[in-house]
Structure formats: structure tokens, C-alpha cells
Amino acid sequence: MPIRQFRKDSKKGGFDTWHLSDAEMLLNPLSFQAVGKTRGWREKTENTFESEHTCWQAYWTGFYGHLADGLTIEDALTLLT
Q: Looking at 8-72, which runs of residues are DSSP E strands?
């Protein structure tokens, strides 16, 4: 379910992933940018571009950190709220 929801949120955020495998989607930074728009991943700074940019990157690198710690893809995606 988390992969399906991630895919839906990516499409809603402006990046359609229908043509990508799950692995390709999760490796693509555009997917995380789009999901960030949908889920409101924003830091509170005066520079809107910088806050949106750095925030999705934090989730992106955090996701891979969870995988490195031994979590499954599903469990790592569940932690991205």
C-alpha cells in the first residue's frame, strides 16, 4: 500500500510515474519532489524555493537511510509522513 500511495501522491504533485517500475520511481528525485508538494513537505524559511528543495531532499535521503538500516521499502515509505 505505501508504494501505491507514494505513486498516487507523485502523480497528484505533477509527476506521473505510470511508465516507471517501483525501483525507477523510488530512485527518481522528481518523484520525491512531487510527493513533497502533495504532502506539504516544507521547511519554514524566507526563501520558498530553498525550503521546498531542501525539505524533499531530507525525505529522499532519509528514505535511503532507512533502507540502509535494514528496513523494507514498505516500512521506509511508511515513515515518510
A: none
Cα 77 to Cα 58: distance, rounded to the nearest angstrom:
13
3-state SS, one letter per residue, for 5-67: HHHHHHHHCCCCCCCCCHHHHHHCHHHHHHHHHHHCCCCCCCCHHHHHHHHHHHHHHHHHHHH
Q: Helix count (H) and strand count (E) of the chain?
A: 5, 0
Q: Domain spans of the chain?
A: 53-81
Average pLDDT across each block of 10 residues of the chain; the chain has 81 residues. List them in order.
92 94 94 91 59 73 93 92 71
16 to each of 23, 50, 73, how far by Cα in Å? 15, 24, 20
